[in-house]
């Protein structure tokens, strides 16, 4: 039997306090009815004896301490689930906002999800092709992995997110879909996401959740949970391989900080709640593959680092939980390189188990190691050139500098094009072939004999450089 409570004890911003409540549950949803007959929904966020603190989603404007009527629903926040979700645009709570009518659910599930038994987890294998060389070759995204993108304010992470949605796919032709959740975005950014997906004709495989900057912060806190609940349904009930893109996790954490402060909780680092780590883990750990289930849930959370500080609590804690990171570089972005992926601090800890023969190509792992090692030499050569000048570098360092420029312009800076994994690996070998074979010490001789294809013999190239230098001197 549902009980209706008349009146409120206190109103404080978006929080209301209800006294004399029995058998209430944390996270339980409530319905609040105003004098004019309108309804608003809320969520119990704190319980002290028979006193409940309720967060009202749409705010408390127009509330009355004496006449507001509150009904407890007896269940936490739930989202409607159906195969019809593909191609739909929802708000942060999973309700349709695209004007295409209601969703008739096959089932409803708690947005908080159910923990995956670690024993039931299947180790991630195989990869998801994003069509972006710097990711596919050097920080490969593996199915069931959580691989965040660390960006900065004003950088082109939204464009990168759209490109991944348009280009991503699995190599073996299995069912693939994307759940895209945007949190705290402005109206123009939301319109950019929608128009980009529609123009690329990919909406039929995308479920999009939009939480706008003007929406309530409690809705922002629910948005990634609702997105992951939808992803788990599509993956483990319908057998699809799901890629979840969450942007921007910094907006989520800011909402969590504001919400924690409104409840009067003791703040932790930089004012964020002390449970920020466990809260982020409750989201990120919902990625994975379950034994006996056909589908998978893979996550790409995108976050903007305040002041480009990778030691800030949000990227710092995210790095502890996830399996690597993709870091965007502001200097590359300023020089027009897109996507501006900083290769050296980026890594994918599960990459080695989802590439190579049977997955990508047998030369993938040694090629990636060689590209990393050679690009690290580029940074050393740049540092030396900043001291003595590039003209004073040795011929070997000059070749490395030449490789570095070509690597950033052609390999990393591919623009809005899509490359297959074969095209990416072939391009990597083309760039490495600019260097003498004896300098490539991370690749065995068999692979070198097969893939190394210099445009000219190194001795002839050096002779040509001497002739050019002699002509200039004359």
UniProtKB/TrEMBL annotation:
Sequence ranges assigned to domain ATPase F1/V1/A1 complex alpha/beta subunit N-terminal in this UniProt record: 9-62
Top-level taxon of the source organism: Bacteria
Alphabetized Gene3D superfamilies for the sequence: 3.40.50.12240
Keywords annotated in UniProt: ATP synthesis, Hydrogen ion transport, Ion transport, Transport
UniProt domain ATPase F1/V1/A1 complex alpha/beta subunit nucleotide-binding: residue ranges: 131-348
Coiled-coil ranges from the UniProt annotation: none
Keyword flag Ion transport: yes
Domain ATP synthase A/B type C-terminal: 353-452
CDD domains on file: ATP-synt_V_A-type_beta_C, ATP-synt_V_A-type_beta_N, V_A-ATPase_B
Entries under HAMAP family matching the protein: ATP_synth_B_arch
Function: Produces ATP from ADP in the presence of a proton gradient across the membrane. The V-type beta chain is a regulatory subunit.
Family named by the database record: Belongs to the ATPase alpha/beta chains family.
NCBIfam families in UniProt: PRK04196.1
The protein's name: V-type ATP synthase beta chain
Naturally occurring in which organism (per UniProt): Allofournierella massiliensis
């Amino acid at each position: 039997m549902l009980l209706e409570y008349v009146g409120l004890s206190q109103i404080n911003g978006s929080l209301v306090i209800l006294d004399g409540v029995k058998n209430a549950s944390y996270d339980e949803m409530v319905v609040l009815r105003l004098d004019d007959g309108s309804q608003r929904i809320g969520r119990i966020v704190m319980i002290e004896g028979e006193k409940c603190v309720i967060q009202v989603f749409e705010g408390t404007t127009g509330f009355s301490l004496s006449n507001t009527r509150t009904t407890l629903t007896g269940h936490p926040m739930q989202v409607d689930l159906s195969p019809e979700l593909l191609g739909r645009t929802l708000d942060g709570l999973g309700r349709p906002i695209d004007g295409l009518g209601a969703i008739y659910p096959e089932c409803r599930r708690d947005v908080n999800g159910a923990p995956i038994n670690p024993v039931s987890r299947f180790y991630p294998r195989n990869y998801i092709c994003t069509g972006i060389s710097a990711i596919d070759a050097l920080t490969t995204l593996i199915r069931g992995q959580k691989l965040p993108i660390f960006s900065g304010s004003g950088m082109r992470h939204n464009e990168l997110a759209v490109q991944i949605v348009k280009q991503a796919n699995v190599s073996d032709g299995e069912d693939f879909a994307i759940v895209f959740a945007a949190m705290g975005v402005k109206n123009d950014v939301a319109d950019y996401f929608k128009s980009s997906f529609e123009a690329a004709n990919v909406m039929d495989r995308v479920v999009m959740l939009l939480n706008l900057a003007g929406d309530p912060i409690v809705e922002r806190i629910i948005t990634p949970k609702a997105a992951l609940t939808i992803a788990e349904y599509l993956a483990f009930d319908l057998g699809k391989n799901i890629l979840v893109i969450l942007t921007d996790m910094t907006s989520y954490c800011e909402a969590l900080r504001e919400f924690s402060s409104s409840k009067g909780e003791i703040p932790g680092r930089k004012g964020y709640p002390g449970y920020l780590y466990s809260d982020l883990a409750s989201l990120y750990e919902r990625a994975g593959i379950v034994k006996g289930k056909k589908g998978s849930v893979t996550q790409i959370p995108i976050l903007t680092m305040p002041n480009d500080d990778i030691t800030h609590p949000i990227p710092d804690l995210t790095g502890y939980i996830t399996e690597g990171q993709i870091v965007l570089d502001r200097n590359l972005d300023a020089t027009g390189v897109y996507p501006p992926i900083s290769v050296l601090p980026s890594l994918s800890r599960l990459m080695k188990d989802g590439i190579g023969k049977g997955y990508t190509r047998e030369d993938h792992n040694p090629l990636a190691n060689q590209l990393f090692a050679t690009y690290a030499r580029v940074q050393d050569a740049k540092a030396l050139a900043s001291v003595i000048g590039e003209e004073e570098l040795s011929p070997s360092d000059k070749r490395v500098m030449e490789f570095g420029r070509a690597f950033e312009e052609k390999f990393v800076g591919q623009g809005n094009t899509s490359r297959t994994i074969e095209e990416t690996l072939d391009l990597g070998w083309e760039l490495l072939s600019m260097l003498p074979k004896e300098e490539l010490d991370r690749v065995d001789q068999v692979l070198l004999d097969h893939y190394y294809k210099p445009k000219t013999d190194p001795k002839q190239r050096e002779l040509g450089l001497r002739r050019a230098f002699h002509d200039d001197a004359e």
